[in-house]
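Meet our chain:
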Amino acid sequence: MTHTLQQRYDLLVPLVIQLPYTLFTGLGAVLTGSVIVGEIPAGYRVESADIVSTAEMVKYVGPSVTSATISLGITGTLAKFTAATNVLASGEHIGSGLAGSLVSVDSVTNLLATITTVGADVNVLTGGSCTAYVSLRRVCATR
């Protein structure tokens, strides 16, 4: 699911992005892979970003998977907005971020969710979900 935005100047734009395990299983036999989960419009910055995996959510699970983390970022900096957040272990995990940086004045930038597994490839995941909360703010006019 990709989210696009066209908002008025200087508004805070919230995104709520569901990250089910099926979003990543199509990446194939890899331990780390990224998928596009949204777009950051030209002239916007990420004001805040969190990945939330609560005790009430179904944890990621798969045969032989001993660890799974997810981060939010862009091409070249896969953890630009959140650190790698544990989505496999029980309990509540919140990955907060390194927000506040302008991505591009001139063009739309893809927002990526990157998963890393240990013990087995991403494509063996059989369950799990978490949620990403991202707030964008327009900080300059586009050219």
Q: What stands out?
A: The chain has one domain: 12-138. The first strand starts at residue 12 and ends at 20. The longest helix spans residues 22-25.
